[in-house]
Amino acid sequence: MLSTILPQLHSGRSRGVRSLPFRPGRAASRLKFDTVCFEYFVPVGEQGASLRALKVVTVAAILAVALTPAAASAASGATWCLEVIAPYASTLTSATCGHGFVQVDVPDGGTQVVTVTNSRQASTYAVFNGFYFTGVTWHHQWGPWTARIGYNGFASPGQKTEGDGRTPQGTYGFQFMFGVNPNPAVHFSWRHAYTYDYWDDDPASPRYNLWTDIRTQNAGAHPEPMHQVPVYNYAAVIGYNIARTPGAGSAIFLHVGNGGDTAGCVSLPQTRLLEVLRWLKPTAHPVITMRVIS
Hints:
Structural class: mainly beta
């Protein structure tokens, strides 16, 4: 927007606007921007005479909008293209991203992003990266690391179904963290996984896609045990299908890898996973983006 407005102001193409070199002490009808001062004229009368009017507020409003920094855009739920290979560039976008970039929908106030990407949808391998936002641009923090995903690769966007062995595509937040082991000093809330804790993955169950204590509640048919070593030594719950739409998929976690593919989760070696889990902060509104890229 600024690139459109300022050339018009300087060239005089904007109706009733003229730019002048700034000289201290000139009339209040001139607004200094860097070394340029703007005057605003309103044509009046049949002879086309000009009446100089005080329009500082009008010009200031235009400039205030034009000069809104990228940081404000990111804090307002912007869409970014993040490069998942060196040099890890980042750009705001309103369209699709180019080769080597992944599209990330950043939530309000979001300053942490992890990405899980590959270029072959059916592959069970993916590249894991982590990024943080400084108020101007995104910087590379973690990776590139090899991650494992579903045994059938990525689901097509919006097509994830229960039991399909695919990892959903999209951008999601984190709900909480858990593990068989004690809390490793994470910032998110932590749940210890006991032998009576299960995840309900039965689409016909009232507790579908919820952590369930089977001492007091029914976890449906064939639930996922949460007390599993080593995969659930440490893990984070990805906020996929939080609406709990029956059959749309459940129990999508970022967890410890065992060397193989997953049933739809994302896994990393334990030492690397712990680095990420300790880094993520609820106040940074982190998201994980899982996508096939070009």
